[in-house]
Write a structure and sequence with these properties.
430 residues; Translation Initiation Factor IF3; four-stranded mixed β-sheet; 11 helices; 32% helix; YhbY-like_sf
Length: 430
């Protein structure tokens, strides 16, 4: 019996100790009023003693917490609060000035009339082909542009160019523009003289009085048009030309701080739809006769093979000379893009002139026509490059890239590559 009572006392004491331990353990997190922690200046954190009755003001403070604004990346199309750009350039804005013609009107558009300058960025209306300098609601877009604009451009260029350069000044500027002197160069490719290229030319004119332009590809078929458009749209003056290399002078009175405002195109617009180049029948012939002519044209010996992105300045006189021997001429265009040799065919049709027969098998076949009259001997002009003319007039024997070698004079039945300034020098030397 004594043992049993001792065991019960021990178990009771151990049970009391465990109860006391757990009471103290759980009472430490939430101190009771009888706790002595207040005697030691202990203040419990708010997380342990939450306010059972929060005030409405405290709830409103937590709800009215300001959120950070969402990040908005910068965009060139965001014109909020900005006025559209205004340009006083007196000509219609086009994507390409050398590869588009105002005389040929398109039959349709491939896309809606979205301005390539961006929405709200330009104060001119985009017609699908150009952004005219005069509001299209005021005048009709058919035909040539307003003659007043041409007069205004001429006056602006004369004011900037100032007095003509002397032979010594030309020689210095051409020497400074050579490849071993400066790496600055503008490349003019298959799109020709584009609108954004005008801004690039003015950027080069900040650092030098003359800029070197290298022309390759489709536009070189008509270099006379390229040179005239460069002078017309930039207001500069071509002081040297050798094949596809051109040196463009900015003018004596050019001020970089007063350069014209040229809004940039943000993307390339789709080309409009033009009439078909190849007709079903040619010059009143029947369908069978037209098919027979195309077969004969593809069997004719090749006049020349065009290289990709080459210089095609002598193509027009070659075709004219070939028409003296045969009525059909074939040009091999393998390796060229379809749009490239079609544009070349259009230029040949207008410059030679001739009739397009077919573009099959990457070939250009042209026909001289029924009433073809070859040029008389009195109309054959001696084509002299600008380098040779300048050398004869005291310009110097060293030109752009030839290092003292004179260019041989080239006799042909074409005067397309003879510039207006070249003809004046030729007349003066004669």
């Amino acid at each position: 019996m004594v043992l049993i009572t001792n065991y019960r006392q021990k178990t009771n004491s151990s049970f009391r100790l465990t109860l006391l331990f757990f009471n103290r353990l759980f009472s430490s997190s939430t101190p009771s009023s009888s706790s002595k922690l207040k005697d030691y200046c202990f203040v419990a954190p708010r997380s342990l003693t939450p306010n059972p009755n929060p005030s409405p003001n405290q709830e409103s403070k937590h709800k009215k917490k300001k959120q950070k604004p969402l990040y908005k990346p910068p965009s060139s199309l965001d014109r909020e609060g900005l006025k559209p750009l205004r340009s006083d350039l007196p000509f219609d804005f086009r994507f390409s000035y050398t590869e588009s013609s105002q005389s040929v009107r398109p039959t349709g558009l491939r896309e809606p009339k979205y301005s390539p300058f961006g929405p709200g960025r330009l104060d001119r209306v985009w017609t699908g082909v150009c952004a005219p300098a005069v509001d299209p609601t005021v005048r009709s877009l058919e035909g040539n542009e307003d003659p007043k604009l041409e007069v205004k451009r001429r006056k602006m260029s004369e004011a900037v160019l100032g007095a003509p350069l002397t032979n010594a000044e030309r020689k210095i500027l051409v020497e400074q523009s050579q490849r071993h002197k400066t790496p600055r160069q503008i490349n003019l490719g298959r799109d020709g003289l584009t609108h954004n290229m005008l801004n690039e030319i003015h950027n080069h004119w900040k650092h030098a009085e003359a800029v070197r332009i290298k022309c390759l590809g489709v536009p070189t078929v008509d270099m006379k048009n390229v040179c005239s458009q460069l002078e017309d749209k930039t207001g500069g003056k071509i002081i040297h030309r050798q094949c596809g290399l051109v040196v463009l002078f900015r003018g004596r009175n050019y001020n970089t701080k007063k350069r014209p405002v040229i809004p940039l195109m943000l993307w390339k617009p789709h080309e409009p739809i033009y009439p078909k180049l190849i007709k079903t029948t040619i010059d009143g012939r029947t369908v069978e006769e037209t098919k027979e002519m195309r077969k004969r044209g593809l069997a004719v010996p090749v006049l020349t093979k065009l290289a990709k992105n080459g210089y095609y300045g002598s193509l027009v006189p070659m075709v004219r000379d070939a028409f003296l021997m045969d009525e059909l001429v074939r040009i091999d265009c393998k390796g060229l893009a379809t749009t490239d040799y079609k544009k070349i065919g259009v230029k040949l049709r207008d410059l030679v002139p001739c009739i397009l027969v077919t573009f099959e098998k990457e070939q250009i076949v042209v026909w001289r026509g029924k009433d073809y009259i070859p040029r008389e001997s009195g109309e054959i002009l001696e084509e002299v490059s600008f380098e040779c003319l300048a050398t004869e007039s005291g310009f110097g024997e060293r030109g752009l890239g030839n290092h003292g070698k004179r260019i041989p004079q080239y006799v042909s039945s074409s005067d397309d590559e003879l510039l207006a300034s070249d003809s004046k020098l030729l007349a003066a030397n004669r």
